[in-house]
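dumping the sequnces here before i forget
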Amino acid sequence: MNVGILIESLTVFVLAILLGFEVISKVPATLHTPLMSGTNSIHGIVLVGAIGLAATADGPLAAGLAFVAMAFAGANVVGGYVVTDRMLQMFKRRPTAPTADAGQAQKAPR
Amino acid sequence: MSTTDLGYAVQLAFIVGAALFVIGLHLMNSPATARNGNRLSAAGMIIAVTAEIAFVSQGQIGLGNWAIIAGGLALGGGAGLRLARTLQMTAMPQLVSLFNAVGGGAAGLLALSDFLTLNGQRVLPGDVPGLDGWRTFFILADILVGSVTFTGSLIATAKLMGILRGRPILIPGGRIVSWFAVVCGLSVSIVLILAGAGVVTYETQVLYTLFAVALVCALIFGVTMVLPIGGADMPVVISLLNAFTGTAVSMAGFVVNNVMLIVAGALVGASGAILTRLMANAMNRSIPNILMGGFGGREGTQADLATEGGTVREVSVDDAAIQLAYASKVVIVPGYGLAVAQAQHGVRELADLLEARGIEVSYAIHPVAGRMPGHMNVLLAEANVPYPQLREMDDINPEFERTDVALVIGANDVTNPAARTDRSSPIYGMPILDVDRAKSIIVVKRSMGRGYAGIDNPLYVNPKTGMFFADAKDGIQQLIAAVKEV
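..and the predicted 3d for all of it:
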């Protein structure tokens, strides 16, 4: 392992954790479930790693592991974002008619 | 393969992706902007994934590899899409838990494959022996945390789905197995890290065996950690497993040398840690205490308190409806029972009826009501309850004294006044919703059964309390009908 890369990565890691604390501690309790679900989709970024793995896999063992990793990460990303969006579209300030186009249709100040 | 020589464009795309994640999370600060935040975050994900595909396509990769990428993505993505579209909102906790499992599992697989396909050579001293200890450290951290998350989340999912009992499951000697797995897994890992650092030398075969032992220990620990934890502690467990998944992904980033994974994993880890702490605070318990588990299963906690002495007053539907209809301020206190019975739409209908009579209606949300952080908020949002009506504990508690009727639906422990008064109660000190301060209380409950904490609730024998024995959904429908009659 290259010492330069190690230090760089550790720096990024620590700063990202602090940034995470800063950004997320302001999220209100109402949104805790969508927040969890949203961060859930973000950890689907492991898909990027899985693609790298799948691209270099040779032999049945590596191919098998890569395939499972791809499927897991794929489910994580797609499912996570879709379900978070589904949840968030339900949060409304005021009830709207069930048929009305959710959210945006509210009286916008002009 | 080394990802250090990624094309600059791909690196830049990763920075953009990471920035979009952060901005997306920032927009989660308000319900008004949260949906756009999630979309920005999804855009960041698409950019990062596209960049990675563009990057790998420049290498010499065979048709078989493309098949793995496309096939895995289609299978997993399809399954994820289907679940996300079709699952009911009440099933959100198990879905989140399932995504934790697959995320942690995928992260663990990255390191596992890295170790296996390189014949363990990453764990053998390389050019710079001392530093390869670090590499081994990250591989092990990824595998251990990923594996614990994987099995732990699967158990949590099974509990939430009702496949396993929600109550603490205590296997004889389970705690010993847990400790053994921890000690064994960690000590084997230390040996492997020393081997990676070149301090000690072993045959490759021995390294493989040690590695397998560490992996199995972690998988076992995931199971024995979550099994004894009760349903009411699930908000803490899910948050914690979410933090674990983030950490595993971050460690995977160190292993495959990808900054994007490190940043995104760290963000998730931080978020999970914050939620875990908030949930634990809301129960006035420490995280280790919750993890030690067996809350409700502990012997002797079922000390028969006030319910023994007092008498329970049952209230009829009509009486309850009249109380509600002639109140001027009603506070609805939802709990897990509401989720189980899918009663959120009925509750909204009842609230609408009351509001139409000019009654002020609000909802009191305890931070750990339900099975995941914010569980009740999502359910009520699904039923079109405007979010400003959902009030947090500290905000609503002073208002109970001015409340005519507190309508408790499927909530138990979070309303238990013993938490304030009875030092011997296992939940003593836990912040609760002060429903007993309302002028009258109606509790919709299936039976006199105890809550998940397995303790009696003196609220039920309070002279001001009327018990309305019914399933939450059914009971609410009866109330709606009766209020219409009034």
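Chain B has a mean pLDDT of 86.
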